[in-house]
Every structure is written in C-alpha cells, then in structure tokens.
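Good day; I would like, with your permission, to put a structural problem before you. A protein sequence and the structure tokens that stand for its backbone fold form the material at issue. The record follows directly beneath this note:
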Amino acid sequence: MGGSGLEQLQAELAAIAAEDERAHEAAREREREAARRREEQLRRLAQDSVKAMTDVQEALGQEVRRQHFLMTGRKAQPASSSRWVLDDDDDFEETWRR
C-alpha cells in the first residue's frame, strides 16, 4: 500500500511539473508575441516618420519655389530632389538624388 501511495504522489508531482512547464511555455510565447508586436509597431513608426519627413521636405521645397516666384517673377531652376531614408544605424540621414 505504501508503494502505491508513493507512486500516486510521484504521478501527482509529475502532473504538477508538466502543468508548470506548460504555464511557463505559455508565458514565454506571450512574451515573444508582445516583442513581435513592439517590433512591428517600431517598424511602422519608422516608416511613418520617414514619410512625414519626406512630405515636409517636399512642402518646404514647394514653398521655397513659390516664394522665389513671388519675389522674382520667375520660376526657380530645377534642383535635385531629396528624400529622407532610414539607414542601418536606425538614425536618419538625407540622401540626395539627381
């Protein structure tokens, strides 16, 4: 009888350990999912920031051309276009293209 009681206790402990492991794995999975969502949110924020900077730069360029025309009565000569890009270091730099 003592043997079966010990076996039952060992089985219960094994079941508790298995449940504990499942709970830990579920917690790790939730942490991985939260990290994935944060990364996606940061990626979207970076894309939105790049787009906003490009839009502002284009609007400023249009305003400069408009002011030049108002002051001189002539259109400004075309200049190189520029865009803001996100480089590998996650900081912003300006890239000029002709």
Q: What stands out?
A: The chain has one helix and two strands.
